[in-house]
Amino acid sequence: MEYTPDPYTRRPEDAREPPQGFAPTLKFLGPSLILAGSVVGSGEIILTTTLGAAVGFTMLWWILFSCWSKSVLQAELGRCIISSGETGLVALNRVPGKIGRVSWVVAIWLFILIPSHLSGGGIYGGVGQAAHQALPALPSTGWTLIFAVAGVAIVLSGTYRFLEKLLTVMVVTFTLITLSCAVLLQFTEYALTWNDVRAGLSFEFPALAVAAALAAFGATGVTANENIAYTYWCTEKGYARFAGPDDGSAAWVARAKGWIRVLQTDVWLTLGVLTLATVPFYMLGAGVLHRKGQMPDGLQTIEILSNMYTETLGEWAFWLFMAGAFFVLFSTLVSGLGGSARMFADAMVVLDVISGDDYRARLRVMRIFAVISPSFMTLCYYTVPNPVWLLTIGGIFFASLAPVVAIGIVYLRYQHTDPRLAPRGATDALMWICVLAMLGLGGYVVYLKFA
């Protein structure tokens, strides 16, 4: 975690002209792949497949909405970060309405921080169950502890560049494995038909699936938490730093716009990867588990999920699934812990516990969190060894955070982003469509739950 110099400080000497053209831009992409390691993980392999197993293809549209609706907000928060040079939580703390020292948006994020560890427990438990299925010499709880220690060691010792390379390999591997199985599904009795697709795009919302759908929305796509975490990976990649301090010149505006274009390319890369990895999991859950009447649950969660592969490809595919499950869940473990440690350290800045200029203090807080947080998550799984339940509860909390962060991002777009860097009207319209759809569907879900 040692960075020299401080990546959170913008200095005139760090200014760098943005790349021109697609090929040169590719060299500066990377935050999206780290984020994809967190985004495409437990929500997809467990919650997305569980929703598919529960309702069949009916809610394919919901999964697509979850994937696509949040990327516009991700890009707009990134624009604000390049404009201001601030981090995600520091910027969101500017939203009016204080609760003590912090904005109500940050206060809600802090409140959700504790129950969100239930999701972490589900992730750690899922990794442990996958390893136990492959090597049953140790129980899933034993493997969970081993992988928790491994994740801590990687986050404590890994620089941004190391994490980027590690997670790039894992993201590419599990995406290819999942896509391959979804394609091979078409050559079996469980093949997807056009009637299935039409049913999935019919915008039905079965009342029985409210909890599962809400959890899937909170844990798939770029979640509200990951929207904020993305700003730290972008900061450490250098997007805001390369723009340099705002000196009021036209040159700074041109340079900042150039790095915003790089960030937007990075965002669309995230969207492509998570869509290619999420939709196939839903197809496998709806196409295989729903038709067999199987639901992932408890200590048998990973074992039941493996049926998606073995039923379509044969018993040999058990090992293919276990490899994919490991890459999916362990990448989420590492990326999620790295992002959460950075956000927690920034929360200490917002709360005035440490100074934003004291990078050594920021690193100390990150290290402390990187040890305590996995310990608590592992304890959650030891207490409740049911990844589906843990992820569902955590996913519901993350889903409730989504409209809160969306409102905060809209405020920052109009009140805290340099007008010279403002997006085009079409981008603004798309942002409003996504926010209003999110609020409207959220209200409808609440209505279904309590009507």
Task: Provide an overview of this structure.
The chain is mainly alpha-helical and 451 residues long. Helices cover 74% and strands 1% of the residues. Strand 1 (98-99) and strand 2 form a beta hairpin. Helix 4 (60-68) runs parallel beside helix 12, helix 4 runs antiparallel to helix 15 and helix 5 (71-84) packs across helix 19. The protein is globular. The termini are far apart.
The topology string of helices and strands comes to HHHHHHEEHHHHHHHHHHHHHH
Main sheet attributes: strand count, strand direction, barrel closure: 2 strands, antiparallel
What is the number of strand segments?
Answer: 2
Instruction: Indicate the proportion of strand residues.
Output: under 5%
Strand order of the largest sheet: 1-2
Indicate the radius of gyration in whole angstroms. Answer: 21 Å
Any chance you could write out the topology, listing elements then pairs?
Blueprint: H1 22-26, H2 31-39, H3 42-55, H4 60-68, H5 71-84, H6 88-92, E1 98-99, E2 102-103, H7 104-113, H8 117-134, H9 140-157, H10 160-185, H11 194-200, H12 210-219, H13 224-237, H14 239-243, H15 250-292, H16 301-313, H17 317-350, H18 359-383, H19 387-415, H20 425-450
Antiparallel strand pairs: 1-2
Helix pairs in contact: 2-10, 2-13, 2-15, 2-17, 3-12, 3-15, 3-19, 4-12, 4-15, 5-13, 5-15, 5-19, 7-19, 8-9, 8-17, 8-18, 8-19, 9-17, 9-18, 10-15, 10-17, 12-19, 13-17, 15-16, 16-17, 17-18, 19-20
